[in-house]
Specification:
Layout lengths: L1 H7 L8 H31 L1 H5 L5 H32 L2 H21 L3 H4 L2 H29 L7 H9 L1 H19 L2 H6 L4 H4 L1 H14 L4 H8 L7 H8 L1 H32 L4 H29 L1 H24 L3 H28 L6 H17 L1 H12 L6 H19 L15
Helix pairs in contact: 1-2, 2-4, 2-5, 2-7, 2-8, 2-9, 2-12, 2-15, 4-5, 4-7, 4-19, 4-20, 5-7, 5-12, 7-8, 7-19, 8-16, 8-18, 9-16, 15-16, 15-18, 15-19, 15-20, 15-21, 16-17, 16-18, 17-18, 17-21
Length: about 450
């Protein structure tokens, strides 16, 4: 956690370095574990859920059904944004983050204990969807609190850097989830993995949740929310006020996030299924590709977000969105070669592009909203994009490729289209780097 120590060195004079470092640690560790829980499900949906919960259909149809349960969690995320956005704007960022964390961890643990279709029939996929919905509700409230606890606690000149730290949780959680899945598949035979091995990554969540809970309970409340509470500047009904005063910002945030939500799952979920099923590549190779993607994303987030503190959020985001459009088809050309080094190269480049876009949103998103509705507004914008672009992307891309008789071109076209929408939103959005997040200011 050397990056957290670096942040502590740049805090303003009135902010205790130890307090901010403790907050940064809790936010980053907590989001890492939350994303681990969410990504483990995505990997399992691509690799094993078709045979465990939908065994009576052909492999492609089973994959579609598995991705449908995957999408269910995303459809629930706006609900979580509304519920926990209200709680975060009314009660506080810290208590809300603790609640979302425990909710997500409990649902993930129960997935690991769930009987499959052969054991309880149709109730197995029904319960799987129910637990996925709970996961989605929990994650829907997690992100907003994590980025707000950082961006509202540090100095304006370092807000891009501070906001990037919770964003590390997504690739870090994916790295851990991929390594755990890779280790599990390596240590078990195909029969053992199908019988009980796939459950181990979910059951590991109980250990991670205990670690994260300790970190979350120890962190302080954000400075901006504490000030708003002292000044009695708390919205009575945050959702109503958001929709009345900042609905345009919600739509802008949703548009900006569309490529990070959908693009991410082109790389880490659809690509695993496409490579292993359509191209016949080894499952381990595709997992290694996901791992490379996550590592490059992890490495790029902090430096590029620190750079945005110097030149602004918009120019960095616009350049990365344009690159994503240009790279969509070359990505699939590289994967379709079936050459290991070229597949890993494509995934690495994708990780850099997606890392820039996702990292910037850790500050760009919250900066669009005023303090009294910031949790609700930022969360709702992100989770709407997740529901529309994230969860549906593996399902849509798989269905489009099947519709095209196995030809790959609809998948990169979908990725480029998502990036195009986000590029348009960035061109419309204002530059927010110099905005104050104190009090109830929105500009």
């Amino acid at each position: 956690m050397t990056q957290i120590s670096d942040v502590a060195a740049h805090v303003p004079a009135d902010q205790a370095a130890g307090s901010l470092a403790r907050t940064a640690l809790a936010a980053t560790v907590g989001t890492t574990i939350e994303w681990y829980d969410f990504q483990v499900y995505g990997l399992a949906a691509a690799l094993i859920f078709n045979s465990q919960f939908f065994p009576n259909v052909d492999p492609v149809a089973g994959t579609l059904l598995a991705f449908a349960t995957f999408a269910a969690g995303f459809l629930a995320r706006p609900i979580g944004a509304i519920i926990f956005g209200h709680m975060g704007d009314r009660i506080g960022r810290k208590s809300t983050l603790i609640t979302t964390f425990l909710l997500m961890g409990g649902a993930t643990l129960l997935v690991g204990c769930l009987p499959n279709y052969n054991a309880i029939g149709i109730f197995a996929p029904i319960l799987l969807v129910a637990l996925r919905l709970i996961q989605g509700i929990g994650l829907g409230g997690e992100w907003g609190g994590a980025v707000l606890i950082m961006t509202e606690s540090g100095g304006q000149s370092r807000r891009g850097l501070l906001g990037s730290l919770p964003q590390l949780g997504s690739p870090a959680g994916l790295v851990i989830a991929t390594l755990v899945f890779a280790a599990t598949t390596a240590m078990t035979t195909s029969e053992q993995f199908a019988s009980w091995g796939w459950r181990l990554p979910f059951l590991l969540s109980v250990v991670l949740v205990l670690v994260g809970a300790v970190a979350r309970f120890s962190m302080p409340e954000s400075k901006a929310f504490s000030q708003a509470k002292r000044e009695n500047a708390i919205a009575a009904f945050p959702l109503a006020e958001t929709l009345r005063t900042q609905w345009k910002e919600v739509l802008l945030a949703a548009g900006l996030f569309l490529v990070t939500s959908g693009g991410f799952y082109v790389y880490v979920t659809f690509m695993v299924a496409y490579g292993s099923i359509n191209l016949g590549l080894p499952r381990e190779l595709m997992l290694n590709g996901v791992l490379v993607f996550a590592i490059t994303e992890l490495l790029i987030i902090v430096p590029v977000c620190a750079f945005s503190d110097r030149i602004g959020r918009r120019p960095v985001f616009i350049l990365a969105a344009m690159f994503t459009i240009a790279f969509a088809f070359p990505l699939f050309w590289l994967v379709n070669t079936k050459v290991t080094s070229l597949i890993l190269l494509g995934m690495a480049i994708g990780g850099v592009a997606n890392g820039v876009l996702f990292g910037i949103m850790g500050s760009f998103g919250p900066e669009l909203f005023k303090t009294s509705v910031r949790y609700t507004g930022a969360s709702l914008g992100y989770q709407l994009s997740a529901a529309l672009g994230g969860g549906l992307t593996p399902l849509i891309a798989t269905a489009l490729v099947k519709w095209a008789d196995g030809r790959y071109w609809p998948a990169p076209a979908w990725l480029a289209g998502l990036a195009g929408v986000s590029l348009l939103a960035a061109l419309i959005a204002p530059e927010t780097r110099s905005r104050s997040l104190s009090g109830d200011e929105s500009d």
